[in-house]
Every structure is written in C-alpha cells, then in structure tokens.
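Lab notebook page, bench 4
Experiment: in silico fold of construct C2
Operator: M.H.
Input chain length: 343 residues
Purpose: comparison with the prior construct
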Amino acid sequence: MFDFKTKMRAEVEGIPDALSELLRSSRDSIMNAGAELRALEPNLICTVARGSSDHAATYLKYAIELTAQTPVASIGPSVSSIYGADLKLQKTACIGISQSGQSPDIVSMVKTALKNGSLTIGLTNTPKSPLADISDYTIDIHAGIEESVAATKTFITSVVSGLMLLAYWQKDEALLSAVEKLPELAKQALETDWDQLTKRLLRQDRLYVLGRGPAFAIANEVALKFKETCQLQGEAFSSAEVLHGPVSIVSSNYPVLALVARDKAESSMIEVVDDLCARGGDVYATSSNSGKATQLPYVATGHPLTDPLLLIVSFYSFVEELSRLRGFNPDEPLNLKKVTETV
C-alpha cells in the first residue's frame, strides 16, 4: 500500500525517545509547579483542553482524584471565549493542555482563570506560545516535531507530564518510579501484536471501545483515532455506562474493544466483557482474566496509574497499520488539519 514509512509510524516509534527527553528536560519545571500546588493546597483542579488533549485531561482527572483526593472539573473553553463568563476560581489550579498552545478559546479560558484567582499551569509542545505566555508555570511536554495530523507523541507526553506533576505535588515516589520506567516499557508496547483485531476490523464500519477509570480516557482517545485514521465509527463508553442502553445493539458478532488495565476496575470490567460475549458480542480484551473474550497482548507496568497508558502505545502502532490496510493515509485524514484553532 505504501512504499515509505508514514509520518505517523515514525512518530509512534519515537514515543520512547520523547518520554526520555521529557524526563530529562522538564523535570525541574514540573518539580517547581508541583511544589506550588503543594503550597496552595487547591480545593479544585480545573482543566481546559480539546480533542486528544482533552482525553489527556480526562486521564489526569482520574489520576488526581484517586491520588490527591482533589476534585477535577473540565471547563468548556467557550464559557469564556463565547459566553464571557467569569468563574469564581480562587483556591483552585487550572491546567491548560494544548499541543500548539495557540487555540484562542483555550487561551481565553486559561487567561480568565488567571484573572479570577487560579494558579495556571500550561502543558504544551510549544513553549513559546500564547498559552505559555499567560501561564504561571509552563511545562514543555517535549514531544518533538509531530507532523502527522493524528496526535500520538503529544498525547502520551501530555499525560506523563501530568503524572509527573501529580507525583511531585503529592511526593509520590511509587508513581514517580513507575513513570521513570515508561520509556523502556513503551518500546515493548510498540511490539505487541494485535493482528487478530486488525483482520477483524478490515471491513468493519463501527465498534464500541470500553474502559473505566484512567482507561476510559484511553477509550476516548482510541475511538477518536479510529475515526481520524480509519473512517471507522468508534464509540467510547465506560464499561459501566455501556449497560445503560448502548448494550441493546451488542449482538450478532458486534465488535467491542475492551481496554482493561491492571487496577481496581479490572474485575468489574471482566464481568461486563463476559456479559457482552454472552449476548453475542465479538469482544477483544487486554486481559487474561476473561474466559470468553479474545485476549490482546499488553505490557503491564506494575502501577495502576501508568498501566492504562501503555495500552494506547500498543494501539497507536496497531491503528497506523489498520489505516493503511483499509486504504487510507493516516498522515492525511479527510477534512482535518494539524492545528485547529477554535473560538
């Protein structure tokens, strides 16, 4: 199909090196922002992001709530840019996530948060950008050049930047140690073989993608990438929510991808997976604990907050190939461009 390596493939293969560069080059800025969070003791963390960056924010929502017991709320950028609302954000911290740091609505909302008393932290791959200019602390996610429209490296390093921020804020040595191991483990995740799922989805037009907790954020990112690169209607659900209505169409070999991590949600997810199999669903799961679903290989990290992240590394490698086999160029998704600036 292609006699050259796609940009997306090169960027996916660059994830381990990007993680290593992030750990080397942004540690001090992340430590400083973490110390400021510790001094502030915020009552609320708010996030501002769109697209893949918003999926990274969802991942961090679960990580922060589970570790720091601090509630996290996603604020729609249009609250400021379109509606002009001034939210009361004293004793809060606002994390803005944008690969380019340029989207006017995200910048507007973070600027409003700063004006109204929030500590602002910008996570961006462009340290000289409007988002960086208005943030109290800017964290360079060090993904390097990313030319493919579908974000890969930037999603991973956004999440890991946030996990490092959380670890330094909470002085969580176990989480920090788990993050340090990610570059080597990511190399292993790139080598996982999801060929069974590739064959299953070559001519499929829709599927469900399930996750729970941090893995639900991964499910959302996976569903987006199916749409972007494969013209495949992926729909993401929490494994709990899928039983509240969506389950009605899971029958007659309907494909389901269950992104199961090694955390406290694993057993409940397996119950749902087995239930969907019993209803006729064709379920593929990243777990060895289901006796009914097709098992997909995975790389375990030994920590519940990093384990889900390697699932997306395996997926990125898989979906780039699936896109090509379905006759698309994953570097040039239909009707999309790399930087989308919304108001």
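Observations: The two ends are 38 Å apart (CA to CA). The chain has a mean pLDDT of 94.
Next step: discuss at group meeting.
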